[in-house]
Amino acid sequence: MIPKEVFEETLLQFLAPIRPFLDDASVSEIMINGPNQIFVERKGKLELTGVSFPSRDSLEAAMRNCAQYVGKHVDKDRPILEGRLPDGSRIEAVFPPVAPDGPSVSIRRFFKETLTVKRLIGFGALTDDAAAALEVLVASKMNTLVAGGTGSGKTSMLNALSSYIPEGERVVVIEDSRELQLQRLHVVQMESRPADPKGRFEVTIRDLFRASLRMRPDRIVVGEIRGGEALDLIQAMTSGHGGCLSTLHATYPRDTLTRLETMAMMSDLDMPLHALRIQLASAVNIIVQVGRLQDGSRKVTHISEVLGWDVQTETYQIQDIFRREVHGLGERGEILSDFVPTGYVPRCVEQIREHGMDLPPAVYAAAKKLPPPGYG
Length: 376
Hints:
Beta-Lactamase, 2 domains
């Protein structure tokens, strides 16, 4: 058997044209559109590089070696590859015939240096007051979803929020590809497994989720909700497993709930839609919305409380606790914005106080500035 270190070095030799970018900490993503066009992302901006693979065959050979490294097989009948490189970076490759110009590849970089809340504040993604609010919301076991578009920083935000989980709690983490770096001691990591070429031995996120409920979790963290496991998570949230954390793709807080609803409906459990909506609105407490702004910066745009499902209007009831207000462009093209409390004091404040904590004074100060109900 080839030693793992030798296999890894051989693989990196096949990836020689892009290896400098794999070693560059400023590169967050590498995109290969056939052998002659390679882009990288730095600070949220795309750059066309001057490098290329010698030929289409050399690029295909590199990707087939990646497939061999992750224990998968690709051919015309299985033209999509998902896996991780030796450094943990996530690779997604699409092969001919579905990619007629040659393999198209995206490599999402894996950074060993964990992004902390303090660093997020330094980047302007959060404020001290918003971070203090998130700390008490997570610590008091509010079920929290981090939502945003592709590359908006959902995983980094979830990693940062994990630092607010009290020490002494047992955290079970479920992912399809390991990306989370939870900043806690007692973490049980579980990873799904795709079926083999004969369609056997698959272990799904749903399988792992059901197993996790019997492993005495204090918290369940699902790396990303993508399908029917949404219903399992919703039911866990409403049956005593507080403090669940997860991410999903959505653009605005209200979209987050409708998308979660759609994914829950992918489950094989037949549940009336109105019952599902009421249960979902009861399960999710807080939505942390992240986004990538036009200048490429990644920011938290909303921290919102879910109040429930309104039967009369048939809408989810949501109130923003913090909201990002954009003021325009700076001299260097950067977006000028503030992340401020809206003046809304969340209903969950009583539960927060039961845990011996409270929201930051800025939340109450903003509430005092609001006009009285019915004014004007």
